[in-house]
Each structure stands twice: as structure tokens, then as C-alpha cells.
């Protein structure tokens, strides 16, 4: 039996090539539970692998044949082999976070084979502190990044004594809980109520094949002076063609530190996150002697308010718009950068609220699916990048979570660099920490892990500037 | 720049699908050299990765475009990323041979992506005895199994004090030594001097598309009663369609034990190897209640003598023919089985020597490329399998080898199961040991690792029968 592929998913499959694997990833770190033996990782692996009934999402693969008239459709994999998808791996010595990030970068840089369901999970042992890592990758045609993180978290509990949790790909992930595994369709671009956009994405054989009308609206929306959005982002090393090599860096910082900075300066935690990125990107580019004279521009997805949300998604699902934020990387003073970012963010959100429904839809589309839409924009003559880097901040659970008693220490997102956008920073809050996941093309963004050092320096600099150090 | 793909290589690329990855593999185990620190595996990995000049064989990938009129050609990978091909991995606890074989089975069951050069190497640490493992996979379109083993061995030395050895994929694998990296072309089917066969393989879009004339000759040769070849192999569980899941098992036994059995019974070491396989297959199938009444037939590639060789390969390269050996699995007595195998092997070799040049060519082709030719035979109405299992015995180095001081402990081949031939046993001698590499479809051949236990039992049984225990 075959089922049709929704237009957005199809667009992600079409946009994918060797240089741009289109899967999102997640890295989770667990503490061994009390009394866990040396076999604990193997037990976790076996529990993840031995699934009674797989969720249908994890059983389907793209399929094209004469019978489907050459169209790609979803088909259940009749040779499904769970051992191919759920794997038990180990880190080389000395098993530091560095070796873990190396492995994640390598795994994230390999495309998922179309001949099988589009996901993999690796239960990883060998961390020197005996924690267990879980790296998961799922094709963007199945879930978007936010849904993927939610999916991983759906099997967790805030009760350390709860047992009976299963794998996120289990059709019944927790005994008693209702299934939360949903296809990407209900929460994303496919639900944007513009029939033209929907069918256009579906019909096109290349991601760049959006009809001119949609792209004109998008570019007009982005160029609109009244919307206070700069489209004149400078050229940087991030805005070039990329290769398929990936590097991943991740670290977290106590939210309390970010909150203190925000409180003392009258800014939000999200502003502080952006200021950290700004300072880190500035320091990183200076080291490479590649800092542009004018400010870098970040594309920052933001949640829309109820009314806007209704326009962008009449079904009442969450809708996301995009704000172009001036990162003020041309300013030396951390306090000044934070202040300018705060203003730019406020202006952008106001602009969003004054936009026409069509503009909101366009922005929403850009916020959801830059991988599909950015190439289209470039083809339309937007030779300078509309923005330099994507920085997302996705809220996560506020309390400590457990998986069958194993405490989740941290959870870090791996995202999708694309041509012209070689670096992606995705943050997610969990418990009392803000986790930064930095994914980039290893060849276009050299020594990407340096960004972590700069992020750390920047928190300290902001604390000092805010007088809370 | 693109270069044409020779007909045999093309046939292997065409024959490949998700259930039949067409790469050969090798597993090598090294002792850490004297004074090696805890970082030794990493050093080996870095030495294997940091190659000044890659051998062209390892830089080319299959490529098809409008410019090549839709034909597959070789093209140098202009985004070659050595980190994708040479990897540093580790075993989960407790790091037994079992975990190593599991990993090799998993790696061997994954197809090489066509978008990159068709090879991978994994330097693996975490064995409980601190040895280092090297698993290598190379597409059959680049090298055949024998060449792959030679290639891996080409960088080794019998001098434990020699240093400066590089990776097998280095254009200059050893300082001072001449490059031995050769494409598969000079040693295989492509050199069989039958223009029709050559071009037929090249022109066909499917492996099964051999012209009827060639296949008729093949089947006639195989069916020829005077050649004492049984084509009436019984149906077994090995002779079904396979999936892409792989299991690998490997172990070695002292050649001295096999030689003693041969000496006492007037048989060859190769006969003893076949008798071990026979007894093990019999025990294995009995456990599954799946032993056929009549004897299993093995296809055993053998070297041709000088005159035959000249017919099959006028360039003077090694030529390989195929002998169908009755494994006598229907007999209970190990001594009787060995005796019958010895006779069947002798008859088969004699038959080979009485064959016409065309028959030799046909057999030679079958010996070289069963993956390509077997489906063709089946399509020609040979509904019963012409043989049940492929057992190869490839001689290797007779003395201890070293790589920069690290002693090579063992070297084990991983081969290619195909539809209808779910199990492959390849043996290779090294130093004073005979190594058995058993590769099978994990789903078609359950508990394949049991064969190792049975092989071990069978050596003991043969020793007892020969009176040398």
C-alpha cells in the first residue's frame, strides 16, 4: 500500500542532495540510574530496539515506480530491519564530549538511504563519566526539528520512579499515555492556507521551482521598508555553497545566568541568547580576519500571537514567523550589542504585527522552511543573502526528565545547514539550562567548536557589563 | 574528467540493490606494538586518514548525467572528504570478538552511497585485549575480493622494525615500494577473451540481461554429464531470496591441525577445509531440522593450470575456474565425508581439464562473478540451484606481517551473499592459521555464528577419525 507524500515533505526530499542532507538530529545525555550495572547501555539499547509495534511514521520510505507513474510516494518497508535503524555504538578513548561531538558530526553528515525508512538512532556508550548518549536523526520529510525534539521528549517523565517507558518510535511510547507521534504535516508549512504555495511545492521537481508569484510576495515582504527588516546582510564566510561535511558543537549554560543579565538590562532571555551568539560570531570572525564592517543579520523564528497565528494557520496549530534581527556585530561593546539586539527584535516583532496576512504567511513560510525557500529567493535575484545565519530558540521542558529512571542531563539539537547558510545555531531550554547546538559545514566554517569558547566568554562579558558578575 | 566503467564493474553496479550490497570486506586484527600508549588506535587512525596523495582508485565515483548521455562513468570526486571514508570507531562493552563481529555485520550490511567514492575503512578500538581492528569495505566494481585482500596486505611488511608504512589507499603505500594498487580490470572477468561476453555485460542494463548464447553455453557446460558436475543441488534454506541484513562470523584454526589430518588421510588441506565446512553445514542444518536428503553442492573456485589459464586469460594473469563439489552432507561419518569430498574435487578438476576452451571460459566466468551470472542462470530456467553455497579458499601470506610494528594477528574476508545464495564461506591462510570468514543474510541464515562452533567440532572429529587427535 502506498500513500501520497505531502507537498512540504516532498519539497524536502527534492531539495536534498549530497551537500545538503535534510535530516534533523538530536543528542541527549542521560545519567545512569542508581544501581545500573556495567551493562546499562546495552539494556537501554535493547529496550530501544525491541519494539513490539513500530509507529507507522518510522516504517515508511519514499518509493517511486512505474505503478506510481514515477511519483514519489510513501510505502511501508516490507523488509524493515530494526537493527539497521537502532544501533549500539561506542566512543573511542578518552571518551570526552569532544569524541562524542565528533561522532555526532560524522553521523549527521551522512545521508539517510532512501531505500529504507528515513531515520536512525544510536545508543552510545564510552563517555568517560559513564553517561549514556542517544543520537537520533530523522528526515525533515518526516518531522521538523521542533517536532523531533518533542518526539524524543514524549517518552520521558518527570517522575524518576516511573518505569515502562519505551522508545520514541514505539507505536505506544509510554504505557497508558496516548500516542503523540504525529507526522510533520499538521504543524508546518503544508498547513499554510495558500493553496498556490501548497500545490506549487508539491508539483515542482526542484526546490527552486516555486512559482514566481509566491517568490515575489516573499521577496516583497522581506524587502518592505516599513517592516524594518534589513535585507542587506553583508557577505560572510557563512554565506557560500556548502559541502556535505558536518561539524557539531554543543554546550549549555545555566538559565539563571542569562536571566540575571536580562533582568539587570531590561531585556529578555532570548535577547541575551542572541547577544551571546552575536559576541561569539564577532569574536570567531575576527579571529579569521573575516568580520564584515556592517552588522550580521540573523533570521530568528518567533511564535506568532493568537490573531497572527490564526491567519497563518486557521487550524489553530502553532505558527511561526521570522524576524530579521540586526546582531550589531559591528559594535565593540557587549552592552551596546545587547541593547541594539533588543531594539531590533522589538522592531521586528512590531513589524510582524503590522504585516498583511499575505506577508505573515510568507514570513511564516520562511521561518518554517528556509531550506526550501532560500534557494528560490536567491534565484529571484536576491544575490546578497537576506540574512547571514539562522538562530532558533525552542523552549523545552522546565523540569528534570527521566527515562526509566535515567536522568536526562542535557538535550541538544542538530540542524540543517544549507547552501548559502553554512551555520545554524539552535538553542533549547531544558530544566534550568540553555543548550546551544551549533551545526555547520566543516569545510565552510572552520574550527566551529571555537564558537563554544566565544559563547562562554560572551556570557561572562555580558554579566560584567550588566553588573551581575 | 570522466572515464568509462569497464563492463564487469558496470555489471556489479547494475546488479546491486538494497538486498544485495556489492562490496567485499576485510577484517584485520593487529597487536599493539611494543611501547604503544593508550593513544595507539588514534595514531593508527590518523596515519590511515592523513594521506598526502590518494590512489586514484579511491577517488572515483560512479556518475551519470545528461552530458554522459545517461551512461554511468567514473568521475573524480571533487568534494572528496577523507573523514567520510576513514573512520575511528569503538566497540561497546565488553569488547569481545562477538561485539566486533556484530559491528562488522552491521557495517557490511549498509550500502555504499554512489555519490561518493565506493569505500570505507574503520579503525576500531575497544577490544578487551587491546588489539586494534581494521574493517574495510570496497565495492566489487573497484576490486574483487582477492584483490582487496592483496591490497590490504600490500602495505604490510614481514619486518617488525620497518616503519613508514602508509594506508592501503595511499598512492604510495610504502616508502620505496612500487604502487600495487590496481583496478579490478586486469585480473577478472573483463579479461576473459570473449568479446561477446565482454560487450554483453557492458551493454546490458540489468545483470540478468546476458545474451542467451552466453548463458546457454554456461548452462550446457554446467549440465555436461561428462564433466561430473552435479547440477542437481537440493533446495536448502540458503537458496532463497535474501534481504540486506548481514551477519558475519569469523575464526581461525592452526594450519598444522589441518595438515596433519590431510597427511594421515591422503587428502589436501583444501579438502580438509571443505570437509570442515561440510560437517559444520550438516550439523547446522540438522539443528534447524533442514538437512536435505541428498548432498549439498559447493561451488569452489580453483586456480587453472598454465594451459587452461592461457585460454581463459591470454594476458597471463591468474585465471580462476569453478568446480562443483559434492559435500557429502548426507553421510554421517566425518572420514567418509572427507574421502568423498576428496574424490569429488579430483573429478571436478579433471573435468575442468577436459573441458573445451569455451567451457573453461564459462566456468571461469562463473568462478569470478557468480553474483552477476547466477541470476542469469536462474532466468534461463535453472529453477533448482546449480549449487548451494560458495566456498572459496584464497592463499595469503605465509609469514607474520607487521604494519609499522603492529603485528597482524589475523585477517578475515567478508564476502557477498546474493539472492539464492544466502551464505558465503571464504577462507584465507595467513601465517600458520586458516581463517574462515562466514558472511550471510541475517534473516535467511539464522544464528549463523553457530557455524563456528560446528567448524570447531568438525576439526576435532576429523582429527579423531584420522587418528591424529
TrEMBL record, chains A, B:
O-acyltransferase WSD1 C-terminal domain sequence ranges: 317-462
GO terms for MF: acyltransferase activity
Basic and acidic residues bias spans: 162-185
Keywords from the named record: Acyltransferase, Glycerol metabolism, Lipid biosynthesis, Lipid metabolism, Transferase
Coiled-coil annotated spans: none
Keyword Heme among record annotations: no
Listed EC numbers: 2.3.1.20
Region (Disordered): 160-185
Associated pathway: Glycerolipid metabolism; triacylglycerol biosynthesis; Lipid metabolism
O-acyltransferase WSD1-like N-terminal domain sequence ranges: 9-273
Keyword Acyltransferase: yes
Pfam families: WS_DGAT_C (PF06974), WS_DGAT_cat (PF03007)
Gene3D superfamilies per record: Chloramphenicol acetyltransferase-like domain, Nonribosomal peptide synthetase, condensation domain
Source taxon at top rank: Bacteria
Catalysed reaction, written as an equation: an acyl-CoA + a 1,2-diacyl-sn-glycerol = a triacyl-sn-glycerol + CoA
Membership in a protein family: Belongs to the long-chain O-acyltransferase family.
Cross-referenced PANTHER family: O-ACYLTRANSFERASE (WSD1-LIKE) FAMILY PROTEIN, WAX ESTER SYNTHASE_DIACYLGLYCEROL ACYLTRANSFERASE 4-RELATED
Protein name per UniProt: Diacylglycerol O-acyltransferase
Biological source species: Nocardioides oceani
Amino acid at each position: 500500500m502506498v500513500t501520497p507524500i505531502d507537498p512540504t515533505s516532498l519539497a524536502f526530499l527534492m531539495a536534498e542532495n549530497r551537500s545538503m542532507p535534510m535530516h534533523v538530529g538530536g543528542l541527549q545525555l542521560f545519567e545512569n540510574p542508581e544501581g545500573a550495572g556495567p551493562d546499562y547501555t546495552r539494556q537501554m539499547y535493547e529496550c530501544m530496539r525491541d519494539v513490539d509495534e513500530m509507529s507507522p511514521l518510522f516504517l515508511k520510505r519514499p518509493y517511486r515506480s512505474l505503478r506510481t507513474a514515477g511519483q514519489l510516494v510513501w510505502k511501508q518497508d516490507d523488509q524493515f530491519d530494526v537493527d539497521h535503524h537502532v544501533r549500539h555504538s561506542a566512543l573511542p578513548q578518552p571518551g570526552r564530549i569532544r569524541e562524542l561531538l565528533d561522532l555526532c558530526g560524522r553521523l549527521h553528515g551522512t545521508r539517510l538511504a532512501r531505500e529504507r525508512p528515513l531515520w536512525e538512532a544510536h545508543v552510545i556508550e564510552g563517555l568517560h563519566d559513564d553517561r549514556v548518549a542517544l543520537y537520533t536523526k530523522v528526515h525533515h520529510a518526516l518531522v521538523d526539528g521542533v517536532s523531533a525534539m518533542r518526539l524524543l521528549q514524549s517518552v520521558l517523565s518527570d517522575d524518576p520512579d516511573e518505569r515502562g517507558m519505551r522508545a520514541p518510535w514505539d507505536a505506544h511510547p509510554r504505557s497508558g499515555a496516548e500516542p503523540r507521534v504525529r507526522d510533520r504535516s499538521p504543524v508546518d508549512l503544508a498547513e499554510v492556507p495558500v493553496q498556490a504555495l501548497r500545490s506549487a511545492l508539491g508539483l515542482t521537481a526542484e526546490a527552486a521551482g516555486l512559482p514566481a508569484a509566491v517568490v515575489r510576495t516573499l521577496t516583497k515582504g522581506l524587502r518592505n521598508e516599513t517592516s524594518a527588516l534589513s535585507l542587506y546582510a553583508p557577505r560572510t564566510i557563512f554565506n557560500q555553497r556548502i559541502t556535505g561535511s558536518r561539524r557539531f558543537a554543543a554546550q549549555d549554560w545555566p538559565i539563571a545566568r542569562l536571566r540575571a543579565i536580562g533582568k539587570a538590562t531590561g531585556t529578555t532571555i532570548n535577547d541575551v541568547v542572541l547577544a551571546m551568539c552575536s559576541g561569539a560570531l564577532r569574536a570567531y570572525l575576527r579571529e579569521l580576519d573575516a568580520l564584515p564592517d556592517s552588522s550580521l543579520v540573523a533570521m530568528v523564528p518567533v511564535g506568532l500571537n493568537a490573531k497572527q497565528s490564526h491567519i497563518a494557520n486557521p487550524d489553530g496549530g502553532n505558527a511561526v514567523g521570522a524576524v530579521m534581527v540586526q546582531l550589531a556585530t559591528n559594535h565593540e561593546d557587549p552592552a551596546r550589542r545587547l541593547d541594539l539586539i533588543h531594539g531590533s527584535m522589538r522592531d521586528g516583532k512590531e513589524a510582524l504585527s503590522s504585516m498583511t496576512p499575505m506577508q505573515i504567511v510568507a514570513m511564516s513560510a520562511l521561518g518554517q522552511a528556509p531550506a526550501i525557500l532560500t534557494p528560490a529567493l536567491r534565484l529571484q535575484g536576491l544575490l546578497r543573502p537576506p540574512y547571514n545565519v539562522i538562530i532558533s530558540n525552542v523552549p523545552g521542558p522546565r523540569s528534570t526528565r527521566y527515562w526509566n529512571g535515567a536522568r536526562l542531563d542535557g538535550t541538544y539539537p542538530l540542524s540543517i545547514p544549507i547552501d548559502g547558510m553554512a551555520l545554524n545555531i539552535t538553542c533549547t531550554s531544558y530544566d534550568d539550562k540553555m543548550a546551544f547546538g551549533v551545526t555547520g559545514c566543516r569545510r565552510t566554517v572552520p574550527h566551529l567548536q571555537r564558537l563554544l569558547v566565544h559563547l562562554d566568554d560572551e556570557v561572562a562579558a555580558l554579566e560584567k557589563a550588566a553588573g551581575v558578575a
